[in-house]
Amino acid sequence: MCSQEGEGYRLLKEYANGFMVSQVLFAACELGVFELLAEAPEPLDSAAVSARLGASPWGTELLLDTCVSLKLLQVDVRGGKAVYANTELTSTYLVRGSPRSQRDMLLYTGRTTYVCWRHLAEAVREGRNQYPKAFGIPSEELFSAIYRSEGERLLFMQGLQDVWRLEGARVLAAFDLSPFPLICDLGGGSGALAKACVSLYPGCRVIVFDIPAVVQMAKRHFSASEDERISFHEGDFFKDPLPEADLYILARILHDWTDARCRHLLERVYRACRAGGGILVIESLLDADGQGPLATLLCSLNMLVQTEGRERTPGQYRALLAPAGFRDVRCRRTGGPYDAVLARK
User: Rounded mean pLDDT of 19-23?
Assistant: First the structure.
């Protein structure tokens, strides 16, 4: 086999086995492996880990050794036994309580996103999301499907809090938002992005606008409601009156919906926006030709299997914003997974 064929075969196997790597990560989070090792006063052998997790000794040993190979755990030999501890990567991103933890978003991805992706071929054939096949629930009301139980709603909100805790400041700093004293975060969930906003721009106030069940859960489970600069307003942004504001943030909102639904929402935002105000769209931008980056294309496929929408190019966002009345549309790459589009009224 020539070297070129060998490289192609290696890539093929890497792609085909990618789901296995994901499942190792999801399973270790689900079982609480990283939490257990973080709380232990010293590294533990596989027998101690399996006993404390209530898992099989053989399965636990296999999982731990695979995590070592993936650099999620480190191993040492003490008294003739292999003992395991978290790596810096794991302590930073996978342990609950770390300021950069992504654990809840990974749990959501493993429990929900992964299940929907089993039906990607059907999604491509049918052109619609796969909640009916994945979970046996209707998807005509998108967020009734996404928030299919109170526990799922809480996990989704915790996952988005993970995202904005890590990415919020970067994307909110893409443009200077200090000229906008009153900001409305549409679909703002737990208020995590609002917290990042008032931290970066202490002179602003933020209204988090979301459906009643989400607002009530945010007040019960998250700390943003304790900040006097952040308030919560219940409503459906497609049909209820929107609070008047200088700037509206739509973060990971437009990619959920069809062009027609996006145009309807943007027209409503334009009417509610104060003169001289604006809109900040936070999404993962496709390249101008729509053929990359790979991470954004995968996100767009995820929108196919889980929502009604897709990721878009800068030109496609301009084509949505201009008919609604917005002008001076500027797009800015952040170097992270989410980019920023700012337009003015």
Answer: 98
Instruction: Report whether the peptide linkage leading into residue 337 is cis, meaning its omega lies within 30 degrees of zero.
Output: no
Averaged confidence pLDDT in the chain: 96
Overall average pLDDT of the 105-130 stretch: 97
Give me 256's structure tokens.
Answer: 């959920």
Write the Ramachandran bin of 252: left for phi over 0, alpha for psi from -120 to 50, otherwise beta: left
- Nearest CA-CA partner of 252 in 175, 182, 162, 178: 162
For residue 336, what are the contacts with CB-CB under 8 A and spacing of at least 6?
167, 170, 171
Give residue 4's pLDDT.
56
Confidence grade of residue 3 (pLDDT, cut at 50, 70, 90): low
**Does residue 20 register a pLDDT over 90?**
yes
Tell me which residues are annotated as active site.
Answer: 255
Joined tokens for residue 170: 């970067």
Q: Are 90 and 72 in contact (CB under 8 A)?
A: yes
DSSP symbols for 5-61: HHHHHHHHHHHHTHHHHHHHHHHHHHHTHHHHHHHSSS-EEHHHHHHHHT--HHHHH
pLDDT of 144 > 90? The answer is no
User: Bridge partners of 205?
Assistant: 182
Strands (E), the chain: 44-45, 73-78, 81-86, 182-186, 205-210, 230-234, 245-251, 273-283, 327-332, 339-344
pLDDT surpasses 70 at 190: yes
Query: Contact, 162 vs 182, CB < 8 A?
Result: no
Euclidean distance between CA atoms 80 and 88, whole angstroms: 25
Q: Alpha-carbon dihedral of residues 95, 101, 107, 109, nearest 10 degrees?
A: -150
